[in-house]
Amino acid sequence: DDVAGVVLFPDRRRMATNSKDGFLRVWDLKDGAILKEMDARGQAMRDVVLSQDGQLIASCDYGGYVIAWHGDTLTEVFRNQSGASSLDFSPDGATLATGSYGSTTLDIQIWNIILRRRIAIIGQNYTHSLAWMPDGTRLLSAGNPNVREWDSSTLKEVGCSDLWKGDTGSSCQCIAVNCNGTLVAYQTTDNHVRLWRPSDQRTIAIFQHSDSPCCISFSVDGKHILAGGKDKKILEW
Questions:
Q1: Terminus-to-terminus CA distance in the chain, angstroms?
Q2: What is the pLDDT of residue 2?
Q3: Taking the model in full, what pTM does it have?
Q4: Is residue 237 within 8 Å of residue 207, measured between CB atoms?
Q5: Please, which pLDDT band fits residue 161 given cuts at 50, 70 and 90?
Q6: HSE-CB for 209 with a 13 A CA cutoff
Q7: How far apart are alpha carbons 166 and 145 in whole angstroms?
Q8: Buried b (16+ CB within 10 A) or exposed e, 120-152
Q9: Which of 91, 98, 139, 145 could anchor a disulfide with 87, C-beta 3.0 to 4.6 Å?
Q10: Domains of the chain
Q11: How many CA atoms lie within 13 Å of 199's alpha carbon, on the beta-carbon side?
């Protein structure tokens, strides 16, 4: 069925996919064979993330469940119904941040995967995307109407959120960080992709997309930005 999310393992030999048929699958990239298949709950899947070391996979579904599996065996290590629509692992893989954009659900929740319990709640409405900085000191959240920055030790907001806003009437929905944390790219609903530099908190470039972008990513070397839009096109800058 429709593929809702794709992540690549650090060994560059495997990938995992989330599908709207309710299955999480691990694939061999060389021959396209399915190595593992897991029926999460029969619910259509949404976001999927992989820890940096490839040891943990986490996914969320339209039923509101978040499930984490061991990357090699797909044995379940965590499960909770938190109403999440987006998620991301901290760099050390011990913490999972989940976000939601429904008006009746909790917003950003922070989970200790090892202890299997929630350790904090951050009050931001309508969270569409989450991204940890590579050093683990900051958590970025994209939502309505802007991107916000949170100190991971205190979970208090830091920086100036006004720098993260799109044009009037637009909102930020997708966010990506390059491998060393020196650049942040985020998409806005006014058909723009903005490049932001955390060191001096400045927008250093604005790219025009052909339609409203739906997803965004940096290339491995950090020299290119790729964004997919509603017009079925992928643009590269």
A1: 30
A2: 78
A3: 0.84
A4: yes
A5: low
A6: 27
A7: 8
A8: eebebebbbbbbbbeeeebbbbbbebbbbbbeb
A9: 98
A10: 1-124 (2.130.10.10)
A11: 5
